[in-house]
Amino acid sequence: MLACLGCEWRLKANDEASDNMNISIERYDRIESLYLTTGDYSALLKMNKTYPMQTRTLIEDVLRIGQVNDPEINAIFLRFFSDSTLQQMINDVQEQFADMTDLEKDLSNAFRRLKEELPSMEIPQVYAQIGSFDQSVIVGQRMLGISLDKYLGADYPFYIEHYTKDQRQMMTRDMIVPDCIGFYILSLFPVQESESELNQQERSFHMGKIQWIVNQVMGNDIFSNDRVSRINQYMKNHKGVSVEQLLRNTNYSEIHG
Description:
α7 (101-117) runs parallel beside α10, α10 (176-188) packs across α11 (197-218) and α11 crosses α12. The chain has helices at 16-19, 28-38, 41-49, 52-62, 73-80, 84-96, 101-117, 157-162, 165-169, 176-188, 197-218, 226-237, 243-248, 252-256, and strands at residues 125-129, 137-140, 143-147. The protein starts with 15 loop residues before the first helix and ends with a helix. It is elongated and about 60 Å long. The protein is mostly helical and 257 residues long. β2 (137-140) and β3 form a beta hairpin.
């Protein structure tokens, strides 16, 4: 982790709503874990009745094993996670993330700072889930889902076999909050899809803007690259530019000339 570059983060005065904003992580992963390790029917009922959107997202969009209304989906779901590697992973997740109060505190602080710069932003409902080593953070329907299976540590055995060293450095508990902030900003200010060379530059630049904002929100230089450095210098030289203006209006040519 590099030292902060000393970027000026123009915080507005906290208002009462901001001061009282605390994020609680819904432990959907615990209900999911109970069903996947024991087949407990009451856990399945709770998944479907208390967390219907989370369950649909998990089955259809994360695991992609079928439709949630398929009569056979429960059996398919159980069979999918019967693999010994996934069963071990489920146990490891519950052990490593038995307590997530530190993450709740850090998420609350990070989203509070972000909302000071983006006042119209809605705070998402945050929950934890267990996937299959595919996706890290899922955003949609005013919800933000953290796949804990992607944050078991750089030395986790499955990661060592399937991911590069650089990738594994990003698969740690410390990256959960930065990833949540980054993916949530991206959901609010998505990259425009195009195959043109210019737009590829703009897309890369857009991700650099988001990384720069994450650095400011976290108070650490988590992302360090040429894009972020250029944006940092631009914002130091243009103190009147807000974060929203940076995201909406500042383009590649303004930074690179």
